[in-house]
Design goal:
The chain has 158 residues and is α+β, with helices and mostly antiparallel strands. Helix content is 33%, strand content 23%. The longest helix is centred in the last third of the chain and has 27 residues, at 110-136. The two termini are 30 Å apart.
Length: 158
């Protein structure tokens, strides 16, 4: 289950995530106050992420009476080679909100997330293409990558 909560001030938990590029947040690695050391971005290496989200629940506490909406999304996707915590957050938020009507209500720029998630997927396809082309010998990485993309749900979309 994935929860989106809007507080009495109209801010959502998802919209406040620094990894989604909130402009008022300082990027990782910048000190939060003068004289402090920069925060170190944690290292992360996920070979295979199996993302399973059955439902998304939206709770709005900015209205009276409080509103709760449930969306059955039945999401089952796999992602490979995730090395950045911000990538992980973007994938989960984008995929969870994609099948709901919450895109605007959640305070998230879905078009920016779409590009980020697409580049993560493309990176995985390129790595697979390199491995396949070295195994195949004569085909170029670009040819194998085009072939792989044609089999995938987003095949060739840019």
């Amino acid at each position: 289950q994935f929860a989106v909560v809007k507080n009495k001030e109209g801010k959502t938990n998802v919209g406040q995530l620094a990894a989604l590029g909130k402009k008022e947040e300082k990027p990782a690695g910048e000190p939060s106050a003068p004289g402090q050391k920069p925060a170190k971005t944690p290292s992360l290496s996920i070979d295979l992420l199996k993302l399973d989200i059955g439902r998304v629940v939206y709770k709005d506490f900015s209205v009276t009476p409080e509103s709760v909406k449930t969306f059955d999304v039945n999401l089952h996707k796999e992602f490979r080679n995730i090395t950045d915590p911000a990538q992980l957050v973007k994938i989960i938020v984008y995929e969870a909100l994609l099948k709901t009507g919450l895109k605007g209500l959640a305070g998230v720029d879905m078009s920016a997330l779409s590009g980020s998630v697409q580049s993560i997927v493309d990176s995985g396809v390129n790595e697979a293409a390199k491995a396949a082309s070295s195994a195949m010998g004569s085909a170029s990485t670009e040819e194998v990558s085009k072939g792989l993309k044609s089999w995938l749900p987003f095949g060739g979309k840019k």
